[in-house]
Amino acid sequence: MDDSDRGNLCMYSSISRITGICWEHMGLSSTRKPLSGFRMLCTGEDLSTKKCVPCNSKDLRPMTEDAAKHLIRELAEWNLINEDGKLKLNRSLKVKSFLKGMDLFKLIAEVAEAEGHHPDLHLVGWNNVTIEIWTHAVGGLTENDFILASKINKLDVHNLLGRKAAISSQHDC
To answer: What Enzyme Commission number does this protein have (predicted)?
Structure first.
């Protein structure tokens, strides 16, 4: 074995070790294929360019709270909540009117249908919108939830939001 082979072996060993650490961080066994949030954590890929995967995979499991705390940093205006032991993404918005709230729901529904992943949408009062996202099939968060939230953040909704919410949203870009 020459120096080049030793260098390649060392590099491979380091990559394997890093991969194992990433899998453990995501709450996955290192003997399983990477799912859930592995690609985002290890590659830094933009969530809004990714596609949700079907939720019926037997290997799909909820991500750890640490992994969720890492990914939430990628989502402006979203909060990580723990509701009865289930992690969820939550975002609140104020819309200009009840009808603007319905328009917002329609835009979100179009994205959700395209992704095959659906949030819980609430319109409370006449102008308070709450969006909750979590993967019901696993009882917690998966990468799909962060992908959907990122795509929702990309929607052009400034004309639907109340003045204060629209100003706040513009500063996040």
So the answer is: 4.2.1.96
